[in-house]
Amino acid sequence: MLRRVNIENYRGFQSYRMEGLTTVNLLVGRNNSGKTALLEAVHFLASDGDPAVLLAAASRREEVASGGREERLLPDVSHFFHGHDIAPGSRFTLASDQDVPPVTVEAVPLGDLDSDAELFEDARAVSSAFALKIQGGRHGARAEPAVLLSEEGALLVDPRRLPWRYPGKERRNGPPAAFIAPDSIGPVSLGTMWNHVLRGKQEGKVREAMRILEPDLEDIVLQAGEPMYRSYAGGSGVLVSFRGHQRRVPLGSTGDGMRRLLALSVSLIHARNGYLMIDEIDTGLHYSIMAKMWELVVRTARQSNIQVFATTHSADCVRGLGVLCKGSPDLREDVSVHKIERELDSNVRFSGAEVLDAVEQEIEIR
After folding, report:
1. How far apart are CA 126 and CA 195, in angstroms?
2. Pick from 48, 197, 312, 339: most CB atoms within 10 A?
3. Could you say which DSSP state residue 135 is in?
4. What's the CA gap between 110 and 128, in Å, rounded?
5. pLDDT value at position 69?
6. pLDDT at residue 157, as a whole number
7. Global pTM value
8. Cβ–Cβ contacts within 10 Å for residue 1, how many?
């Protein structure tokens, strides 16, 4: 488990550290304080510097630059560097004090590479300026080639290749690390995680979790998509049934809260013995179920050896965590709240007991 994370020159943080991390960590702070950036940093570090994590983060933020003969949009990695500025010699580093080795991402001149960089055919119309090289992690020096960048910082990848297949041939070994965005998880990732649920015979746990919101939920199934839609829908759709109703209905018909609980419950099963990042954890959920949602997350994280990092803007979400700490004293040591302020060089930490005190005394800690 990560106890501390040090960040240098990543996004809006020239130098920052998060300390006093616990099993479940809730990040709070004003808009644009860097909460999501810290989730991304932890995800990249915990994923052993997997470049697919960078591609996914750029995609979620719509960070793209034009390139190629058809002026297609390509991932723009310049925004991962402090000041949104990238040139040969630019680098950012993520590190921890535990068993997870540090990872450094550096923009290097083409002449400094030990091996040829990789340039895909679709990007040959773009003049490359330098290359992106990832070093560190459990793998040390990378076996795969560095990837060429345009002058603007566009990552010259072939958009036809699936992100998790690039640039390595296989997923990284090591503990799982999942990221849930505010719009939950995509159909392809959901299908992969659901297969993991089926293999472990964990469907009952998913149903139990979703009954937090809909007590009459009877069953949940994933259906195969029509052939022409599989590339868009991940080959699956989610149907749910309720007691007293004969027909299954699409999950999307039940509202954002059910989608969020499905993403949470499936991801918690998938992330066993690993890490789970949840951006805006309260999205789509009513304030009245916040304490139950936190109990699901914290108890599962403790039982399944998962370290959770989540963000929120909601006072109700923090209050729900305080309610959990009051009703379940055994879980207090597993949770902490971290206030993020870009003006400081580290987080302001509140233990589970301090969160409870703040909620009971109506003290604002966001």
Report:
1. 40
2. 312
3. E
4. 9
5. 52
6. 59
7. 0.88
8. 13
